[in-house]
Amino acid sequence: MFQSGIQYVITAYFIIVNLVGFALMGIDKRKARKHLWRIPEKTLFLASIIGGSVGTLLGMYVFHHKTKHWYFVVGMPLILIVHIILFVKFF
To answer: Is 32 in contact with 65 (CB distance < 8 Å)?
Structure first.
């Protein structure tokens, strides 16, 4: 019973952090178009590193944002690969 509670918390965490990563990409793209204050690239990478790699990667391609920057095109998939490896290793 305790373990299933932890699983729900972990699942909820990953859903939320991926939704946030996806939203950050959309928000930053909208701000870029309007020439407004932007979300720092560090923040976008941090959202990916803390578990939002799927959301940020999807956001990149859905919003066509940061797809011309090599460090995003290479970095975001690499973070996702690391997350997949860690997931397989620990679960």
So the answer is: yes
Residue with structure tokens 């928000």?
A: 27
Joined together, the tokens standing for residue 45 give 């990478």
Paired tokens of 8 = 């729900």
Residues making up the chain, counted from first to last: 91
pLDDT digits (tens, 9 = 90+) for 39-76: 999 999 999 999 999 999 999 999 999 999 999 999 99
- The residues, any chain, with a CB within 8 Å of residue 21's CB and separated by 6 or more, are 44, 47, 48, 52, 53, 54, 55, 56, 59
Give the range of the structural domain holding residue 37, as residue numbers without chain letter: 2-90
Number of domains in the chain: 1
